[in-house]
């Protein structure tokens, strides 16, 4: 191979092995010393191999990068001793510097809830002196009015430190790792006592940038509704504050939601405008490249210079400068080198969805789009259509495994949206940025231009909503594991072969046609035989929904049921839409036969509302509390047609599907003194398949447990969903002795304020020899049974 040939392949391989090293280190622990010694040994071998030009040198170089990936992950994953995360579950006083503008919102009681992000400088435990601290910390506060605060101010607050926590389910974004990649390692609730603010240098550069963004927001709000101003501001500088949920959902449905956050598309747009300006003015290519870089730098600063913006700016600037200088191959190589350097500096980026999508989308644009655009032009497609379709297809297909894993949806309508809506949005962004500059000099003229931008937003909103409403706007796609993803990208790489390479592949396929066909046939027969020979299994998924209950049942032939759906008591987080539905899609559940709700409390029933709106559900079985209680919990109107699906479950009712029996084991009637909606109303359901059975008790109280037993009902089951999240108001010794479970599952939120599960309840299960799992520690817990044996898998090992 001559010098300069195959460099893309070489750097691509090194990037892949570096990623493999980072991923391996995240799953297995290894000694720092052994890894460092291994790097030195393979480094020496690589140097010697390069000097003597040995063929095996590439293998040793790849091993160096694999081991470096492991070392870098271990280095950043270990936090210093004074990091705020080491004070989890302790009440402390902290001081720090405000890193970004505070997030403000209404608390539903006429006050404000605030979120501040600080870089901790000092920590003080009760009865101790101040000590040096570090790490990023979210501070949550509630007050009637938020104090005036700016980036760079010193913030002081007191409260209990909590570790970051996300919903630990397959396909769910790892919130803890995502925050850690941004240097955020803990949170603290200051409550109503709020924060104390000490002003700092008011002339700082970052504050001046904030003032510029505030100028844009204020000028827009003077001439357009606040919701429009929020949407246009998001398109200019990123963020979702104040945007109507309908607009976000419509943008999501048509696959262009990335426009509402600063991404590579914004960088590319501005770079393209400056490149076009350079061409129009007939500027030298070097001057055009300087203009491109300058506008990207200025815009990145205005957008807050946060890590996602910086990543997009670096990749966009380097790649676009290469393109502006007619060095397309260099642009591809620069992208690979940039990814390699970024991951070497910050290996946690590998697990950041923003980095994954940005890098792969950019790779698609550089590698795939030119090939398909040329093909379309050669087959009669005009230049505009060819460019639009090629870019959209390249970005979608390059990111397909990521979209499948996290969202399980592919937007077919994105092709139309990118041709019709995106150009209008790009025009809005250019006009909006221009209007803000004009408003500094001529406020009235700037206001008029902003008003035109608002009218254009109305057109974009209507077009997006209509495209999103088209039949088959979104299609479900299955989650792809690592093996299938690797095969997918290998097949996608065939598009990058030149004519000579394609001819070689064609010859090889022709020569291997018969043995290859026989091999594929044997493989298919083997897979089908394994599938037929494998007995049908019942799956019971206990989903991590925080401090709430949610379980998914999948029968041997694919019928699906849910038992409770989780939810939050304050309704601030739509758990049904953001946790339940993604979980169902991840496992290919596109409809539910029934939903069984134990009672109407939000932590059991609220999530059902979004499930009903997004996934077909035949009916909802409830306790006898009245449909109004469930409507309130799910935030459904009293006359919502979805309420016609609700039916009260009566004790003794049962149904059999695929050999699986579901029975309403206990439906306690409300007695004098009972709450009309409460734990006393909890229905008890049992799911049985062969010798295995699963008991769902909701928040059944000890008194109702005793009533169940007094009525002669036998609750014996293999697995018990432990009542009331492990509260001491449930799971009496007598009830456990009657159930005789082999396994128990605590559905509980991490560091919850109730102290669930109670230590005495945990001991009670241990004393009776019952193996228990916890969703806060184990994540989603899944039981598989063929009616005879039982196996358990947990998401967190």
Please, could you describe this protein's structure?
This protein has 797 residues and is of the alpha+beta class. The protein folds into five domains: 7-77; 84-202, Nucleic acid-binding proteins (OB fold (Dihydrolipoamide Acetyltransferase, E2P)), CATH 2.40.50.140; 257-351, no CATH class; 497-533; 538-794, Metallo-beta-lactamase, Chain A, CATH 3.60.15. It contains 27 helices and 25 strands. Strands 16-15-14-13-12-11-24-25 form an eight-stranded mixed β-sheet. A seven-stranded mixed β-sheet has the order 17-18-19-20-21-22-23. The protein is globular. The two termini are 45 Å apart. The model is unreliable at 1-5 (pLDDT under 50). It is a multi-pass membrane protein. One of its GO terms (biological process) is establishment of competence for transformation. InterPro entries: ComA-like_MBL (IPR035681), ComEC_N (IPR004477), Competence_ComEC/Rec2 (IPR004797), Competence_DNA_uptake (IPR052159), DUF4131 (IPR025405), Metallo-B-lactamas (IPR001279), RibonucZ/Hydroxyglut_hydro (IPR036866). It is found in: Cell membrane. Keywords: Cell membrane, Membrane, Transmembrane, Transmembrane helix.
């Amino acid at each position: 191979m001559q010098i300069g040939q195959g460099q893309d392949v070489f750097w691509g391989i090194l990037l892949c092995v570096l990623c493999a090293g980072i991923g391996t280190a995240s799953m297995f622990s290894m000694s720092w010393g052994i890894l460092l010694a291994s790097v030195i040994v393979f480094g020496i071998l690589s140097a010697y191999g390069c000097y003597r030009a040995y063929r095996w040198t590439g293998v040793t170089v790849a091993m160096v990068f694999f081991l470096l990936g492991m070392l870098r992950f271990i280095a950043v994953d270990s936090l210093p001793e004074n990091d705020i995360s080491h004070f989890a579950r302790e009440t402390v006083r902290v001081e720090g510097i405000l890193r970004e503008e505070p997030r403000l919102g209404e608390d539903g009681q006429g006050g404000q809830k605030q979120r501040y992000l600080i870089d901790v400088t000092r920590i003080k435990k009760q009865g101790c002196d101040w000590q040096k601290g570090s790490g990023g910390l979210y501070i949550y506060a509630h007050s009637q009015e938020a104090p005036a605060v700016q980036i760079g101010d010193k913030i002081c607050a007191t409260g209990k430190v909590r570790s970051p926590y996300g919903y630990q389910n397959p396909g769910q974004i790892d919130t803890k790792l995502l925050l850690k990649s941004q240097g955020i390692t803990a949170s603290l609730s200051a409550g109503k006592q709020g924060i104390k603010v000490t002003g700092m240098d008011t002339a700082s550069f970052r504050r001046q940038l904030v003032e510029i963004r505030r100028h844009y927001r204020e000028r827009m709000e003077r001439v357009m509704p606040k919701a429009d101003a929020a949407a246009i501001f998001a398109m200019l500088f990123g963020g979702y504050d104040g945007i109507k949920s309908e607009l976000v959902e419509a943008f999501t449905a048509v696959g262009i939601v990335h426009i509402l956050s600063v991404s590579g598309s914004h960088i590319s747009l501005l770079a393209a405008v400056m490149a076009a300006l350079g061409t129009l003015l007939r500027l030298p290519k070097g001057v055009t490249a300087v203009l491109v870089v300058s506008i990207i730098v200025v815009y990145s600063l205005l957008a807050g210079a946060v890590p996602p913006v910086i990543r997009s700016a670096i990749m966009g600037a380097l790649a676009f400068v290469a393109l502006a200088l007619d060095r397309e191959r260099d642009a591809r190589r620069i992208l690979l080198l940039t990814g390699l350097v970024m991951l070497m500096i910050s290996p946690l980026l590998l697990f950041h969805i923003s980095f994954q999508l940005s890098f792969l989308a950019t790779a698609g644009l550089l590698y795939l789009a030119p090939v398909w655009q040329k093909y379309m032009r050669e087959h009669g497609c005009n230049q505009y259509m060819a460019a639009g379709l090629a870019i959209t297809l390249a970005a979608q297909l390059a990111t397909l495994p990521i979209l499948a894993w996290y969202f399980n949806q592919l937007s077919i309508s994105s092709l139309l949206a990118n041709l019709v809506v995106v150009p209008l949005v790009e025009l809005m962004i250019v006009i909006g940025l221009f209007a803000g500059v004009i408003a500094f000099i001529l406020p009235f003229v700037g206001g008029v231009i902003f008003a035109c931008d608002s009218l254009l937003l109305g057109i974009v909103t209507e077009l997006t909503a209509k495209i999103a409403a088209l039949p088959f706007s979104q299609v479900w796609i299955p989650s792809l594991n690592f093996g299938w993803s690797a095969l997918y990208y290998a097949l996608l790489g065939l598009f990058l072969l030149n004519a000579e390479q394609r001819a070689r592949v064609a010859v090889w396929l022709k020569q291997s046609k018969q043995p290859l066909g026989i091999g594929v046939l044997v493989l298919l027969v083997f897979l089908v035989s394994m599938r037929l020979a494998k007995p049908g299994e019942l799956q019971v998924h206990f989903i991590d929904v925080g401090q709430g209950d949610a379980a998914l049942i999948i029968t041997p032939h694919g019928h699906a049921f849910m038992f409770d759906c989780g939810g939050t008591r304050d309704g601030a987080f739509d758990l049904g839409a953001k946790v339940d539905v993604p979980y169902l899609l991840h496992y290919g559940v596109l409809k539910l036969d029934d939903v069984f709700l134990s009672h109407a409390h939000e932590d059991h029933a609220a999530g059902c509302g979004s499930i009903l709106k997004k996934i077909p559900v035949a009916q909802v079985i409830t306790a006898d509390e009245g449909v109004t209680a469930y409507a309130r919990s799910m935030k459904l109107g009293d006359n919502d047609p979805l309420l016609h699906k609700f039916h009260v479950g009566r004790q003794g009712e049962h149904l059999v599907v695929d050999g699986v029996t579901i029975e309403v084991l206990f439906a306690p009637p409300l007695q004098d003194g009972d709450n009309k909606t409460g734990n006393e109303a909890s229905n008890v359901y049992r799911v049985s398949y062969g010798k295995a059975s699963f008991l769902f008790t909701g928040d059944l109280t000890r008194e109702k447990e005793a009533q169940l037993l007094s009525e002669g009902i036998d609750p014996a089951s293999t697995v018990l969903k432990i009542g009331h999240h492990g509260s001491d108001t449930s799971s009496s010794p007598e009830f456990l002795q009657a159930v005789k479970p082999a396994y128990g599952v605590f559905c509980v939120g991490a560091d919850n304020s109730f102290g669930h599960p109670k230590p005495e309840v945990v001991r009670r299960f241990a004393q009776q020899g019952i193996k228990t799992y916890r969703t806060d520690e184990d994540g989603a817990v899944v039981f598989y049974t063929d009616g005879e044996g039982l196996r358990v898998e947990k998401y967190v090992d």
